[in-house]
Amino acid sequence: MRNYFNKIMSVKDNLNKIKSELPKSVTLVAVSKTKPNEDILNAYEAGQRVFGENKVQEMVQKWEDLPKDIEWHMIGHLQRNKVKYMAEFVSLIHGVDSPRLLKEINKQAKKHDRIIPCLLQIHIAEEDTKFGLDEKELYELMDSDIFKAMENINIKGLMGMATFTDDKDQVRKEFARLKSVFDALKSKLPHISVLSMGMSGDYTIAIEEGSTMVRIGSSIFGSRNYS
């Protein structure tokens, strides 16, 4: 019982500490992937309403089980054949990294009479494992007739992941590059307002470089459960 109480207080204390440090202009996405419902409810009771998942099946189950005023963000790499399972409820898709994925999101959104908010993922890291569009692909997409015909998506901004490294200067350089792409894109999409960059290990640098949305998991919930 004592361990359970300590766990509740730990999640709430971690969450409140991070929130107190974030500028009011920055949205916190609590990354709840692999975490049980009780952990999410602890954060929910502390006032958190935006949660991020990277597996569609897990997110669907949590959406069914947990309070309906939670905003669910899909933050992981998304396969086109999984979009249909979350199109009914997802609040924001972070990792749109191809025209074909965007087309599928638009198709499934239309079936549910929704306009689904999306972020275009830009590849800024030096790691090949990271997904995303390069700048040439981004502008080709913006100028395409296919994109202009998509009426059931709303591009809210950009998302990117920095290289996993202890070199803070490199991380800062990559975030600064994404911010410059974001600023340049405003000439084509003046309404964009979301720049999602920064996780538990680098969110302070991301905010300094202009992030408006950070994705934080382990600093709130502790280490992930991969079993």
Q: Name the poorly predicted regions.
A: none
Mean pLDDT: 93
Could you give me the name of the CATH homologous superfamily?
Answer: Alanine racemase
Helical stretch count? Answer: 10
Radius of gyration: 17 Å
Number of domains: 1
Could you give the count of β-strands? 8
Walk me through this protein's architecture.
The chain has 227 residues and is an alpha/beta fold. It has helices spanning 2-21, 37-45, 56-65, 83-86, 99-111, 135-142, 145-148, 168-185, 203-208, 218-221, and strands at residues 27-31, 50-53, 71-74, 92-96, 116-121, 153-159, 194-196, 213-216. Helix content is 42%, strand content 17%. The two termini are 24 Å apart. Helix 4 (83-86) links the parallel strand 3 (71-74) and strand 4 (92-96). The chain has one domain (2-221): TIM Barrel (Alpha-Beta Barrel), CATH 3.20.20.10. The chain has an eight-stranded parallel β-sheet with strand order 7-6-5-4-3-2-1-8.
Index terms:
single chain, alpha/beta, 10 helices, 8-stranded parallel sheet, 227 residues, globular, TIM Barrel
Summarize the structure.
α4 links the parallel β3 and β4.
